[in-house]
C-alpha cells in the first residue's frame, strides 16, 4: 500500500535551454518517471489547441520537446497527474464533465518504445480513458470476393444496434453504388500518406495496388457509440492490428475453392478483367497466410452463405445461447474544479470538495485501474468508477458509476 503524491509545477524556468518558452500559468503538473520529469499542460501560447508536454532530463539538465502521438486533450483549467505502473501518467482534467475527464499520457509503454525506434525521437502518446468494458472489436479478413462484405451486411442488418462498421480509407476509386463516408473514405494518396505519417492510422496496407487503412478515429467512433466494431481488412492489416494494442477477435473467411472465388468475383462485376486476375493471384497467398499465420482465432468456410452466417453468429454468441442486448453506455462523472488526488494500490482516489455545501460535504470518487486494457493509439478501456457520498460524515452511500 503506498500513496503517490501529486506535484504541481512551482519553479520552472521561464526560458528553457532549448529555446522553448514556457509561460507558466500555474496550470502545469510535473511527474517524475525515473530520471525524467514530465511537465504536462499549460499552453505555450494562447492559441494552443491542446495540452503541451515537455520533458526535463535531470541527468543532462536539458529540456526535450517530444513527438506527441494520439488524440490530445483540449487545454483545460488545470489537471492532476499521477504516475501508473511507471509507464503512463493518468491525467484527471479539472472542471470537466462526462467522458472527457480521464486521459493517459503513455511515456514508456510498448507502443511508445516501438514508436521511438520508428521515429528516432523522444515520443509520448495520449489515449483517452473510457469507463467500463466495450466488447472486443471483430476483425474479418479473407480474399477479395469471398463474401466478407455480404456477411458483415447481414450481421449489421440483423443486429443494427449492436454492431458498427469501421469505415476504412482507400485510394481506390468508388464503385457505382459506393458512398463516401459510408463504404469508405475515398481519399488522395498524398493526403492518406500524410495522415499515416501523422500517426492517424491503426493499420494500413497496399492491397491490389491501392492503399487501404483503418484510422484510429474510425474504430473509436464505433466504440464511443457503444457498438461493437467490425473491421473488414486484408491479412496484412490483420497482422498489424494483431501487433497493436487493440484487443480483437480475428476471423478468416475462406472460399470453398479458387473456382468458386473466381465465379463470385466475376459475378459481382465490379472489377476489370485485369483487376480480377490480380485479386485472384493475391488470394492464393492470402488463403495460405490466413490458414497458417496464427493470426486468426477462427476460420469459417463460406460455401453455403446461410450456413456460414449461422456459424459466424454462433462464434459471436448470437445464436440464442447468449443475450443479444448490447450494454448501455456507462454514465459520466462531473469532476469539480476543486479536488485532490491520491493513489492507493490500483485505486485512484479523487477527493471532491463542494464548497457551497460546507466542509462536511465531500465526495470521494474512486477510479479502479486494475483492469486497464488497450491504450495509445486509441482509448484506454476498463476503468471502473465508484462514488462514495459525504464520506467525512460517514459512508452514506456507495454508487458504482460504471
Ligand atoms: N456463399 C456464397 N455463395 C455464392 N455467392 C456468394 C456467397 N457469399 C457471397 N457471395 C457473393 O460473392 C460476391 C462477393 O462477395 P463480397 O462482395 O461480400 O466479397 P468480399 O469478400 O467483401 O470482397 P472484397 O474483399 O473485394 O470487398 C457477391 O456478389 C456476393 O453476393
Ligand atoms: N489492410 C486493410 N485492408 C482493407 C481495408 N479496407 C478494406 N480492405 C481490404 O481490401 C480488399 C479490397 O477491398 P475492395 O473494397 O477494394 O474490394 C479487401 O480484402 C478488404 O478486406 C483497410 O482499412 N485496411
TrEMBL record:
Residues 135-317 form the Guanylate kinase-like domain. One of its GO terms (cellular component) is cytosol. It comes from the Eukaryota. Residues 266-293 form a coiled coil. Pfam families: Guanylate_kin. It catalyses: GMP + ATP = GDP + ADP. Its EC number is 2.7.4.8. One of its GO terms (molecular function) is GMP kinase activity. Keywords: ATP-binding, Coiled coil, Kinase, Nucleotide-binding, Transferase. NCBIfam families: guanyl_kin. Belongs to the guanylate kinase family. This is Guanylate kinase 1. It comes from Corchorus capsularis. The lineage of its organism: Eukaryota, Viridiplantae, Streptophyta, Embryophyta, Tracheophyta.
Amino acid at each position: 500500500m503506498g500513496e503517490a503524491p501529486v506535484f504541481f509545477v512551482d519553479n520552472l524556468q521561464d526560458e528553457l535551454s532549448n529555446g522553448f518558452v514556457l509561460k507558466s500559468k500555474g496550470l502545469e503538473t510535473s511527474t517524475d518517471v525515473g530520471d525524467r520529469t514530465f511537465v504536462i499542460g499549460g499552453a505555450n501560447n494562447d492559441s494552443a489547441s491542446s495540452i503541451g508536454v515537455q520533458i526535463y532530463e535531470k541527468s543532462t539538465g536539458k529540456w526535450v520537446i517530444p513527438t506527441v502521438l494520439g488524440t490530445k486533450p483540449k487545454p483545460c483549467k488545470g489537471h492532476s497527474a499521477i504516475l501508473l505502473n511507471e509507464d503512463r501518467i493518468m491525467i484527471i482534467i479539472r472542471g470537466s464533465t462526462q467522458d472527457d475527464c480521464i486521459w493517459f499520457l503513455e511515456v514508456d509503454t510498448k507502443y511508445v518504445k516501438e514508436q521511438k525506434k520508428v521515429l528516432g525521437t523522444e515520443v509520448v502518446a495520449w489515449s483517452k480513458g473510457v469507463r467500463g468494458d466495450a466488447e472486443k472489436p471483430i476483425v474479418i479478413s479473407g480474399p477479395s470476393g469471398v463474401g466478407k462484405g455480404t456477411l458483415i451486411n447481414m450481421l449489421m442488418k440483423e443486429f443494427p444496434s449492436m454492431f458498427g462498421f469501421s469505415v476504412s480509407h482507400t485510394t481506390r476509386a468508388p464503385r457505382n453504388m459506393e458512398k463516401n463516408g459510408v463504404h469508405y473514405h475515398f481519399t488522395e494518396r498524398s493526403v492518406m500518406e500524410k495522415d499515416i505519417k501523422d500517426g492517424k492510422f491503426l493499420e494500413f496496407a497496399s492491397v491490389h495496388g491501392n492503399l487501404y487503412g483503418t484510422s484510429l478515429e474510425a474504430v473509436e467512433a464505433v466504440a464511443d457509440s457503444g457498438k461493437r466494431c467490425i473491421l473488414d481488412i486484408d491479412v496484412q492489416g490483420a497482422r498489424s492490428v494483431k501487433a497493436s494494442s487493440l484487443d480483437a477477435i480475428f476471423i478468416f473467411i475462406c472460399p470453398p475453392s479458387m473456382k468458386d472465388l473466381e465465379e463470385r468475383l466475376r459475378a459481382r462485376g465490379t472489377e476489370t478483367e485485369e483487376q480480377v486476375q490480380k485479386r485472384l493471384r493475391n488470394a492464393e497467398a492470402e488463403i495460405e497466410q490466413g490458414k497458417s499465420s496464427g493470426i486468426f482465432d477462427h476460420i469459417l468456410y463460406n460455401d453455403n452463405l446461410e450456413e456460414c452466417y449461422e456459424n459466424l453468429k454462433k462464434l459471436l454468441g448470437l445464436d440464442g445461447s447468449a443475450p443479444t442486448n448490447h450494454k448501455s453506455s456507462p454514465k459520466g462523472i462531473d469532476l469539480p474544479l476543486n479536488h485532490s488526488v491520491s493513489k492507493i494500490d490500483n485505486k485512484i482516489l479523487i477527493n471532491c470538495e463542494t464548497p457551497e455545501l460546507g466542509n462536511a460535504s465531500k465526495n470521494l470518487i474512486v477510479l479502479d485501474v486494475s483492469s486497464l486494457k488497450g491504450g495509445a493509439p486509441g482509448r484506454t478501456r476498463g476503468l471502473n468508477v465508484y462514488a462514495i457520498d459525504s464520506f467525512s460524515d460517514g459512508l452514506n452511500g456507495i454508487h458504482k458509476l460504471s
